[in-house]
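Our working data are protein records whose layout never changes between entries. The record below serves as our worked example for the rest of this section:
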Amino acid sequence: METDKPATRAWVISPDIKSDQNRREPVSALEEAVALAAALPKIEVLGSETVRLPRLHPGMFFGKGKIAELKARLTGAEVELVLIDGHVGPVQQRNLEKEWKVKILDRTGLILEIFGDRARTAEGVLQVEMAALSYQRSRLVRAWTHLERQRGGFGFVGGPGETQQEADRRAIDDQLVRLKKQLEKVVRTRTLHRAARAKVPYPIVALVGYTNAGKSTLFNRLTGADVLVKDMLFATLDPTMRRVAMPSGDEVIMSDTVGFISNLPTELVAAFRATLEEVLDADLILHVRDISHAQSAEQSRDVMTILNSLGVADGAPLLEVWNKIDKLPDDTRAALSVQAERTDGIFAVSALTGEGIGPLLQAVAETLKDPRHIETLTLAFKEGRKRAWLFEEGIVETDTQTESGYSMQVLWTARQKERFERL
């Protein structure tokens, strides 16, 4: 009878590099690195540590003394995999693996593994595969000795055959081209879905935030949906959308998105831009923060940096949701609740208990209630579908038939006008 493969014995190292201007608080950085490791199935974290370095060693990442010290510890614990929470170059990776006799995975490789395990939709899977191939391609630079071998040609052309490295890189490039074509088809299909949604008079509210901030729990609280909720980084990787009725009776489409993370590799930001396209189309963004986290302010800055890089931070109104107030001591909780009440656009809530959800929903409804203005439209007879849409929206004030079509006065919002123009 076949038994389950035992968990891989892993050790987590969080480098604290003195010369790094973007260095994070060491304790929180190590906690996040361990949480990332725990998000991978079949990983048993035997130990973790912060390693302080004045600077990175170009060939080995660590200095000789530290490498020897760590080797003794890893060998004693019979470690099979070392997760280094930082960027490890291909040459550094090869040298460390040779020295320690273990598999090395850096932060990018680890996040890719998690993404690969979590992605569910066709688009998400394709994006992960493309990001993984781009990462793998960068590892081909002097990464393994077998890549120095020459591969002989058929003799039709003079000169040496191509190296194994060149062949591997070419194969990856061919695969990337194929995947890009597949992804374009998927994105086109999704664009059609978005165009269909443009006909629906429901504004889109996107939940964004640092990974593990409680977005999926809040999404479930607001929508009654059964989305995967785990105390685990990157529990959600594909946007989930549900229709939600506001207390005012209006309806919105709520979108739960992938969590952001600090130092997210640039190739992953690019690969997941389409996954975040629901945010690009959002009429309102809810920035969910784990206000109980020691690094909540830093996490918030990381999220806003990514939103700015996507070009959405200034596009739609944004409300800040201070989640997990139930985890705070009573005095801190009371002070933050008062601060939120006195500050426009901030709401202290507990997605777990439901505390503060009512005022948040009321603010969502108020924010989405756009001012209306009168406008005169001239439609040709052949634009019957547009005319029907205007009537469906209930915004037609007058409708006069002319020799060439219709002259209509409509009372609408800027959002309705934008949807009309996209029809």
Observations:
- Residues 142-161 have pLDDT under 50 and may be disordered.
- Residues 150 and 163 are 4 Å apart (CA to CA).
